[in-house]
Amino acid sequence: MEYELKIDVSPVYELLDSFMLYVTRKWISNLDIGPHWISDVEDRISPHKVTALMQAAEWPFTDYDVLYAWVYIRGPATSVQHFLDDLDSASIEECYQQIAPLIQEFTIEDAFRIRSSYSPLLRLWYEQYFRHVEHKILPLLIEDASEKKMLESKMDPISLIEYASGGVVFEEITDLKTIVLLPTVHNRPINTYCFYKTMVIVQYPVDVPLEDENEPPMVLLRMTKALSDPTRLRLLRYVAHEPKSLWEMQSDLNQSREMLMHHLMILRVAGLLRIHLRGEQDERFSIRPDGASELQMFLESYIYL
């Protein structure tokens, strides 16, 4: 099945990424920015503003699906403030009508709650944090998105998605028509997905230049860490011949779900696994053939062989 592929870039997506990570602390230990990022940010924000931002920690995580969809649907924004001004000036009915075709059981009350709750906090987050880093991040996003757009004429959509994401493979998904690729820095090195009725938004990590070229690149460190554990090596061997579900791994390998998820995450962020998606809750895993060759390439490049 062929899907329509779109490649989008906007500072507003990255604003949402950083806000979501700060508030929820989700995946933070698996990200390049690391847990220390939280304390670094809070060193620059007054306690009462931290308290205001952390209100959102209690709100539904699915709210972010709505926020990302609003960014995509409302089209390119010249700035974060332009997007927020535009969203605030829209009627609640318009905000509802934009999302209702994409999310089941979405109500006009949801539209009002999400807009009125998040808009002031996103403005606060922009003022206190994001505006200070935007000028460093936005050029990286634009450059990478431009590269991926150039590849559209040379690669089919599924291959381009797998290449950009380092291993995400979309299989037959009923009603799926559009896949949107978004470059991200804050979420590096993981991929994140927002599933809708007829669309999926996939965020993929963007390379960040090394500050010190004498230091090993993060991608090499992730690979060597992933391969240093015998359990993860056995996992790679187990999925080498055909994709396996988490349930099959639990049954065949006699491992707990929690331990498997831990090892799979490390292998995924190292670019050693493919993730086959059949739906939001339907994932299978297989070895990523390019992983071993990339390990050799990064290793040789670093040690100048």
Characterise this structure:
By secondary structure, the protein is of the alpha/beta class. The protein folds into two domains: 4-205, no CATH class; 218-304, Winged helix-like DNA-binding domain superfamily/Winged helix DNA-binding domain (Arc Repressor Mutant, subunit A, Orthogonal Bundle). The protein contains 13 helices and eight strands. Strands 1-3-5-4 form a four-stranded mixed sheet, with helices on both faces. β7 and β8 (282-287) form a beta hairpin. GO terms for molecular function: DNA binding; DNA-binding transcription factor activity. This is ArsR family transcriptional regulator. Residues 222-300 form the HTH arsR-type domain. Keywords: DNA-binding.
Please outline the helices and strands.
Blueprint: E1 4-7, H1 11-24, H2 36-42, H3 47-53, H4 63-73, H5 80-89, H6 92-99, H7 108-151, H8 157-165, E2 168-170, E3 178-184, E4 192-195, E5 199-205, H9 218-227, H10 230-238, E6 244-245, H11 246-253, H12 257-269, E7 273-279, E8 282-287, H13 290-303
Parallel strand pairs: 1-3, 2-7, 3-5
Antiparallel strand pairs: 4-5, 6-8, 7-8
Helix pairs in contact: 1-4, 1-7, 5-7, 6-7, 9-12
